[in-house]
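testing teh design pipeline on a random one, pls ignore if ur not involved
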């Protein structure tokens, strides 16, 4: 098939959870022999590793939390005037209907990567559509609206304004999710829980669902890494990796720093990697790697990977990647949502802060035998299931394209 893929981020090597999810999809489409026309925001040259057919729609839109005060206010004002969610308004692109129609014409189907890219197709429904939903966006923003008042940080007026904006974002994105359910041929989620949640939205809204709901279970892209060889005397290094501007990640890191680390400080070393650590009060002795270009640098610096998540939907991409490396992993149960079946033995699940910390110490000192081999088996099985799931989604699109073609032929005969 010739597939048009619309995405909010063009990239070469994935450096965030969202990019890992996109990279996984592009890799399976490419390896399956499909011709990809990749359209989105970002650098055309970097994205050419996936396909020679790349169209850039401008620069990548950075996180809202990284904007300065005046740019934030301008973004909010623009969204209010346009009557759109802020995250949708910020992703607007100078893509005319004529140009998009020209890109669509030679393609058999369209894959939309990220909910916020869905409005780019409004008014154009000439090809079967698949949306890959990275998480239930409306739920994430509704949780942030509740947290705006609960955390007690900042001025009271500011907390109420944030609550209003987050609720507005949640309601706007909920309407977009319902629109996809009514119009797409397939809506693919990353976990069964997300799929059921979207189905419940449709039932509550008494919506006639057109889309077939599917699940794309993630698999690791990174190969297993050699475990760091300690002397047995050095303190074990506990590492956390993430994009810390994303609210669920930041919440999990705050929990770890406040509830877990104080109990094991002095008996372990802390390694933090990823962007967005500004504004957080970090332990004085923490090793801060910041944004890293090679994820292997992080895994080579730690003895155990801590994956902490207390809220959020979708799946934790960093959990998938960590399990696939063969590294020792300690995670909260929520961090492993969508991954709890057939976990390899080098992962431990703990939700209690004290037990979480103790598990980090034990896992850091006692590596799992055959972890690399078991990680390879786990990753291979996950990739097989993912590949079959993508094939089923594309089959649905192909059937819809054939029905559309038959309808067009019938209309042509009638007109003649």
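output:
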């Amino acid at each position: 098939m010739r597939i048009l893929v619309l995405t909010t981020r063009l990239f070469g090597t994935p450096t965030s959870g969202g990019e890992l999810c996109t990279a996984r999809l592009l890799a399976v489409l490419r390896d399956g022999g499909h011709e990809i026309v990749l359209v989105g925001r970002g650098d055309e040259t970097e994205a050419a590793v996936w396909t020679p057919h790349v169209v850039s729609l401008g620069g990548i839109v950075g996180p809202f939390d990284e904007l300065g005060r005046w740019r934030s206010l301008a973004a909010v004002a623009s969204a209010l005037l346009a009557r759109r969610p802020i995250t949708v308004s910020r992703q607007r692109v100078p893509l005319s209907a004529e140009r998009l129609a020209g890109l669509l014409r030679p393609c058999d189907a369209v894959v939309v990567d990220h909910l916020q890219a869905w409005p780019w197709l409004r008014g154009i429904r000439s090809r079967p559509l698949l949306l890959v939903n990275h998480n239930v966006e409306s739920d994430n923003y509704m949780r942030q609206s509740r947290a705006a008042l609960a955390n007690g940080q900042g001025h009271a007026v500011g907390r109420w304004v944030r609550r209003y904006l987050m609720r507005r974002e949640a309601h706007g994105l909920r309407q977009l999710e319902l629109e996809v359910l009514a119009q797409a041929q397939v809506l693919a989620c990353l976990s069964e829980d997300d799929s059921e949640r979207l189905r419940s939205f449709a039932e509550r809204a008494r919506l006639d669902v057109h889309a077939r709901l599917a699940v794309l279970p993630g698999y690791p892209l990174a190969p297993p890494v050699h475990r760091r060889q300690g002397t047995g005397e050095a303190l074990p290094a506990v590492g956390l990796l993430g994009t810390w501007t994303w609210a669920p990640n930041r919440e999990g890191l705050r929990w770890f720093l406040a509830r877990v680390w104080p109990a094991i400080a002095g008996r372990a070393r802390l390694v933090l990697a990823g962007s967005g650590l500004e504004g957080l009060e970090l332990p004085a002795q923490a090793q801060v790697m910041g944004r890293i270009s090679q994820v292997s640098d992080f895994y080579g610096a730690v003895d155990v990977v801590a994956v902490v998540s207390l809220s959020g939907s979708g799946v934790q991409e960093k959990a998938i990647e960590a399990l696939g490396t063969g590294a020792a992993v300690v995670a909260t149960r929520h961090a492993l949502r969508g991954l709890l079946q057939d976990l390899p033995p080098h992962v431990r699940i703990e939700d209690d802060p004290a037990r979480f910390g103790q598990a980090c110490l034990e896992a850091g000192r006692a590596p799992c035998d055959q972890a690399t081999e078991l990680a390879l088996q786990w990753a291979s099985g996950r990739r097989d299931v993912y590949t079959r799931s993508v094939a089923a989604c594309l089959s649905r699109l192909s059937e819809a394209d054939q029905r559309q073609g038959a309808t067009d032929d019938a209309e042509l005969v009638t007109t003649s």
